[in-house]
Design brief:
5-stranded mixed sheet; UbiD C-terminal domain-like; 14 helices; 9-stranded antiparallel sheet; disordered N terminus; 567 residues; alpha+beta; Pnp Oxidase, Chain A
Length: 567
């Protein structure tokens, strides 16, 4: 069986088993279980050697793991049931231990193969600050399936980063899109009373508010300070309505936050429009640690539908398959997720801009100090008792779940170019887009590469490959580029296009050059060889069709586990 066929079979697999004692399961066996099985519950101890759960947090990680999840707590419990949570009693962030641990996890397991970390306590400025603090809650690709109640795909030895779980989740969302005329399904939110809203368990006003007491951290020694970098910032426009996007917020004091949104982002446009209207203050709310569906929508462009803007909370409900419960804020009119962990409310003085940064950006490089950035004066904070907070080590870990955000782009790409087989905007290397095609004519590869480079804001280097190349496998992609691509005549360079403002190589902010590359096997009509030779592996499969099955049966487990070492 070829590698590509093994991948196809893996994506189609959805085995489930009932009545199994999870405490006796290996992680490999657990990944074969369907998370959506009725009544399926697990109890998992996820404390690594040298760590232990802290009873002080009251953060139980056991329970029913059936999706959809009303809260991030339920979702993390499901991750834990699959063995994807590493819980640590205490981490010293004055020594940047959490940052270094996430870097080590990525080094060893890749951006999409590392676990979720849960720190019960964090040392900040010499003091123990109560958590828990969640890191990399969406990073492992198996989480893409778990969020939708799908059984993760056990890739076995194929890859340390389980991208077939990502593909399976993406396929699930694509089916939702196809059933809804190409648009994300929507289910309107429902309003619940404050008394029934976990985010209102504690309500703080005025001098009661001190955000510095919570487990918000400085992620990098060169950063300007402690940051709240996973908050969904709610803004309003009189014509276009409410938007929420994930923008970093510099924690400057008990009741002051720097509010960074890049030019071109919706929140920034809303605030600039209010400024242009002559308004002096804009009301803003920031939602921290919502359910996974609101979280995935906040980091995407899903709200842009064929007929204009679509309510983002309704899209989150459509992805969840149930309405998101919402509740009114204390000091403004925003309706926010009732099951979130914390809500920060405030007002932005539109005529008083202040410096912000530097900050370790998502592309993996230190960003610049910005001279004039909006900021927030906090007017109220509501939160759960013992709130669970999140931090993102930008440039090191992945952001929110990505399959849902990619699904519509992939679907539309296939509609416009039916020979497209796979598509991957590579979050491990921001700006790279890899596409595989079933090539049927000369010039097709470059045509598709150009279409993506010209239309997609984030696409900087677009590489089109043959359909036998796994676009998530860096080794396979590099090998194909090295062996199949002739640069002359098979690329197009764009001198200046709209581009990611955070790109450290850009001279003009928001503008940059791009390249479209056809790395498919070049045909004679494209100045390629008269006969392109077959790969060695394909000849092995043709000449010894049972070889892989034989070695897998004899030594598969030994080969897979050899890194474990003695004991």
């Amino acid at each position: 069986m070829s590698r590509s066929n093994r991948l196809d079979n893996a994506v189609d697999s959805s085995d489930s088993k009932d009545n199994i004692d999870a405490s006796k399961l290996s992680r490999r066996t657990m990944l074969g279980l369907a998370a959506g099985s009725a009544g399926l519950a697990f109890t998992a101890a996820c404390s690594p050697e040298g760590s232990s759960p802290s009873a002080a947090t009251g953060a139980a990680l056991s329970g029913n793991i059936q999706a959809p999840f009303k809260s991030m707590r339920d979702y993390v419990a499901a991750l834990d049931a699959y063995g994807l949570v590493m819980r640590i009693a205490e981490v010293n962030q004055d020594e940047y231990e959490a940052t270094a641990l996430m870097c080590r996890a990525r080094d060893q397991h890749g951006m999409r193969g590392a676990p979720c970390f849960m720190f019960d306590e964090v040392i900040i400025d010499g003091k123990k600050v109560k958590g828990p603090l969640l890191v990399n809650e969406s990073g492992n690709s198996h989480a893409e399936c778990i969020a939708f109640g799908l059984a993760p795909v056990d890739d076995g030895p194929i890859s340390a980063e389980p991208f077939n779980s990502y593909r399976k989740a993406r396929q699930h969302v694509e089916q939702l899109l196809l059933a809804n005329d190409g648009e994300y399904p929507t289910i309107p939110p429902v309003v619940v009373e404050a008394a029934n809203s976990p985010c209102k368990e504690v309500v703080l006003h005025g001098d009661e508010i001190d955000l510095t007491k919570f487990a918000f951290i400085q992620g990098n020694p060169a950063d300007a300070g402690r940051y709240i970098n996973t908050g969904q910032v709610y803004t309003r426009h009189p014509k276009y309505g409410v938007n929420f996007g994930t923008y970093r917020c510099h924690l400057r004091g008990p009741r002051e936050l720097g509010l960074n949104s890049e030019p071109g982002q919706t929140g920034y446009r809303h605030l600039k429009a209010a400024q242009a209207r002559g308004e002096k203050v804009a009301k803003v709310s920031i939602v921290l640690t919502p359910d996974p569906y609101v979280w995935m929508v906040a980091g995407s462009k899903m709200s842009f539908g064929k007929n204009g803007l679509v309510d983002e909370m309704s899209i989150a409900g459509g992805l969840a398959g149930q309405s998101i419960e919402t509740v009114k804020c204390e000091t403004n009119d925003f309706m926010v997720p009732a099951n979130a962990e914390m809500i920060i409310e405030g007002e932005v003085p539109l005529d008083d801009l202040r410096p912000e940064g530097p900050y370790a950006e998502m592309v993996g490089y230190q960003g610049k100090v910005k001279d004039e950035v909006f900021w927030l004066r906090v007017t109220a904070v509501t939160h759960r008792r013992n709130p669970w907070l999140m931090n993102n080590f930008t440039g090191v870990q992945a952001g929110a779940l990505m399959a849902a955000g990619h699904a519509r782009s992939f679907m539309r790409l296939k509609q416009n170019h039916p020979d497209v087989v796979d598509f991957f905007p590579d979050t491990r290397a921001v700006g790279f887009y890899f596409v595989s095609i079933n090539k049927t004519r000369p010039g097709q590869g470059l045509e598709i590469a150009r279409a993506i480079a010209e239309r997609d804001f984030f696409a900087k280097i677009v590489v089109v490959l043959d359909d036998d190349v796994d676009v998530t496998d860096h080794d396979a992609v590099l090998a194909a580029i090295g062996a199949r691509w002739q640069p002359y005549g098979n690329l197009q360079v764009y001198e200046e296009r709209p581009a990611l403002p955070l790109d450290p190589s850009s001279v003009k902010v928001g503008k940059g050059s791009k390249i479209a590359i056809d790395a498919t096997r070049q045909w004679p009509e494209e100045n390629g060889p008269a006969v392109f030779p077959a790969t060695n592996e394909s000849l092995l499969l043709a000449g010894a069709p049972d070889a892989f099955a034989n070695v897998d049966a004899k030594w598969g487990d030994s080969l897979r586990l050899w890194r474990a070492g003695p004991g």
